[in-house]
Amino acid sequence: MEDMKIWGIHAGSQGEGDSLFLNKNKPRIAIGWSEVGDLAEISADREKYKERFSATYPTIKKGAIPTLAGVLFRFVNEMQIGDFVVYPSKMDRQIHIGKIIGNYTYVSDNKYSNTRSVEWLKNIPRTKFSQGALYEIGSALSLFQVKNYADEFFSVLSNNEIIKEVEEDDTIAKVAEDIEQSTEDFISKRLIRELKGHPFEHFVAHLLNILGYRTRVSPEGADGGIGIIAHKDELGLEPPIIKVQVKSNDADITPDKVQALYGNVGAGEYGLFVAINGFSKKAREFAKSKTNLRIIDGDELIEIILQHYEKLDSKYKAIIPLKNVYIPVQVENE
User: Fold this and answer.
1) Of the candidates 105, 136, 131, the residue with the CA atom closest to the CA atom of residue 39
2) Phi-psi region of 316 (alpha: psi -120 to 50; beta: other; left: phi over 0)
3) Residues of the chain falling short of pLDDT 50
4) Cis peptide before 328, with omega less than 30 degrees from 0?
5) Nearest of 124, 138, 126 to residue 175 by alpha carbon
6) d(CA 295, CA 293)
7) 281-288 and 255-262 helices, crossing angle to 10°
8) Which positions ≥6 away from 329 have C-beta within 8 Å?
9) What is each CA distance from 27 to 3, 120, 126, 178, 329, in whole angstroms?
10) Do 137 and 146 contact (CB within 8 A), yes or no?
11) Interacting residues of 212 by C-beta distance below 8 A, sequence separation 6+
12) Contact 246, 228 (CB under 8 A)
């Protein structure tokens, strides 16, 4: 089956497509965006699909159009009769594996208007697949090609038996790592895009409030190298006084900027530099040489955010929307 493709497909967040996909009389796979119309009318050109999609949904962000239009293009032009398809049903918790047996058809009176006939060959419990395979078919896209774990799905079809349950799955650590990295990247991008400049100072001040400090944020504009004054007592008269500088750009902070902050730190005071991205090697060396100077880079900042996320103000949760999930971890044998 080396020359065959295997596709993954989803049917809505609540599995609304189950009745259509798994219909005993006429099973079909399908994708939505019915407002685009009959895709067979569009020439097999990705740019034409982008143009039609953009014209149909003018409010969708431009950056998302190539991905979404690409889903439609692949469903019509890249998916072929004889290809295989994997459908993880949310309703019966089974992985359904089938073969495409029909060309693209447009059904105008259905939410899932873009369809293809399919013959389901096997349905296997999710627990029989490796965590890596489940992770790959959990893609955020409604249609995608399965590549990394295609052999595992083909194995189910070629062997007339269910896969043996995996006792030790070396994909677990990779899955957890990918999820963590994706979350960190998401937070970093949202901070850079939504809290650029002075708003980032207010965000850092809010974090310091959560950590038990009282803060004063400098007025927008020239701050003399000090964006925030933090202290423990109500009036800010008792030591330690912490002078804070923050940077929301995505470039490494050079040593001169850290030195400029430290130049404003008086006897008995502390300096703190917070940067969304990070610091150059020399900037880190300078900070390390000063006992009353601390730097926090993007990685540590995100760690602090995750540790105290539930205490964030609702306006910041809206900027960085996250939810609690449990992910598998690999436990070392004693």
Assistant:
1) 105
2) alpha
3) 1, 162, 164-165, 334
4) no
5) 138
6) 7
7) 30
8) 172, 173, 176
9) 25, 8, 21, 34, 37
10) yes
11) 232
12) yes
Q: Against a cut of 0.85, is the pTM above it?
A: no
Tokens at residue 61, please? 């962000």
CA distance 127 to 123: 12
Q: What is the DSSP string of 123-147?
A: EEEGGGS-HHHHHHTT-SSSEEE--
**Integer Cα distance of 152 and 157 in angstroms:** 9
Count of beta carbons in the 10 Å neighbourhood of residue 168: 7
Residue 108 backbone phi and psi in degrees, to 5: -70, -20
CATH 3.10.590 range(s) for the chain read 6-170
Q: Which two tokens stand for residue 248?
A: 């929301």
H or E element, residue 155: helix 150-158
Q: Where in the chain is the domain with CATH 3.40.1350.10?
A: 185-319
- Rg over CA atoms, the chain: 27
Q: Tokens 């469903």 label which residue? A: 75
Contact indicator for 232, 212 with CB cutoff of 8 Å:
yes
Three-class SS of residue 86? Answer: strand
Q: Which fold, 185-319?
A: Trna Endonuclease; Chain: A, domain 1 (3.40.1350)
Architecture of domain 6-170: Roll (3.10)
What pLDDT digit, counting tens, does each position of 178-234 carry? 788 888 889 988 998 898 888 999 999 999 999 999 999 988 776 567 889 998 876
* pLDDT tens digit sequence for 247-256: 887 678 899 9
